[in-house]
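Example record used in the benchmark description.
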Amino acid sequence: MRLPCRHHGVDLWLKPVLPALPCDWNQAIIYLDRDGVLIEGSENYINSVDEVNLLDGAAHALGTLRRAGFRTCLVTNQSPVGRGLWTHETLHRIHERMQESLAAADEDAEVDLILYSPYAPWENSCARKPAAGMLRAGNVLINWAHTGESPTSSQKILETGSDQWVESAASAMVGDRLVDYQAGMSHGVRTFLVEGHLGLPMVLERLVDENDKGDHLF
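Model output (structure tokens):
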């Protein structure tokens, strides 16, 4: 099975130690695409740390979500790794620069868990959006970190989800592409599409409003 990858090559099914939240966890997770949501995107990929540029207000928006009690999970397709354009280590450095830039702008702006799919589209991995594998894994890992209860049937989680931890009604997916929308809807969470030059700040007020059920395209 082509599993999602974790930041710095950590084994996917190793219990995570999450950074402290500024307040109690509200049981909800905000799943975030990367390019066009937190940082500026590019048609030619983000290929080095020098190309990492935060979108205006993204750090404050991320910090605001965590101050409201949300956990955050990055779920990003990164097929250049699988295509051999650059390595996992290059991607880890890019994500380190992103995290450093976020924290420099807002001390609470931290992505709690980083997951990525290194697979090309033709590999048909359940870890690649529009499939929901990364979101399902993120749900399990974040709940595991809080409860201490290890997940069961971990390999099946990516395809069918887990009945061990039910996703909060306040959880949401934020992305700028149709595949993000499809992944969020498949996972069963509120889903918000943003314009790539505006990113996360565009939907911040909607995310913290649990009565906002997200966007509905179909």
